[in-house]
Amino acid sequence: MYIDSHTHLYVEAFEEDRKETIQRAIDAGVELLLLPNIDVETINPMKQLVLDFPNNCKAMMGLHPGNVKEDWKEQLSLMKEELYSNDDYIAVGEIGMDLYWDKTFVNEQRIAFAEQIGWAKELNLPIVIHARDAFQEIYEVLDELNDDALRGVFHCFTGTKEDAEKVLNYGGFKLGIGGVLTFKNSKLDEVIETIDLEHIILETDSPYLPPVPYRGKRNESSYLLHVAEKLADVKKVSMREIEEITTKNTKQLFKL
User: Fold this and answer.
1) What is the CATH number of the domain that holds 86?
2) pTM for this structure?
3) In a 3-state reduction of DSSP, which class is residue 141?
4) CA 204 from chain center: how many Å?
5) Residues 234-248: b if buried by 16+ CB within 10 A, e if exposed
């Protein structure tokens, strides 16, 4: 069994064929689908998906850094209430910092990130970190808040060897590897060559970042196998080994 550790199957992109998409994933051997939240608007569709597929879907709770806007405090307040009153959530995510599109709310992003890390520590949950053009800013927060109680994943990891080293030195973190690994010029394969498989979990981030040969199309969880195939190639091991190790890593991290 494979686990897609990061997929947004509840969003509008799957409105027409959500059930069929999930069935394709299950048929491909991707039987567990972990759903990071985006904002207050996505909570109900995400919860509905878990109700529809209780054996295949697990939800997380968090405010995506790209959605930290004027109303971020209200959003966090609603999310905290939801998270603390429902023990079905497996992680705090997707949280972090994103300075790619807009730097207007950089301070608010930092504060929201730190606050949500606090929730994770209190509830003994892992965090799922979104880091885009913001590794340095995220390290500043983690350098201050990291301790033995904190664990999580740098989702869609696209950093350098030095970044990988820094992340793994925090002690409780994995690298989430998705479609970018299959991109010809990403150079991610050179970084991953140097990383032990015990530090890696697989993800699609669907509907975003589809792997080769689906670039430019909508991504979906069944395409995880293309990432697994590329990882097997980079690490010079069998697909079975990739499946066994990444599934074990994901189960351990999220206590599944």
Assistant:
1) 3.20.20.140
2) 0.97
3) helix
4) 9
5) bbeeeeeebbebbbe
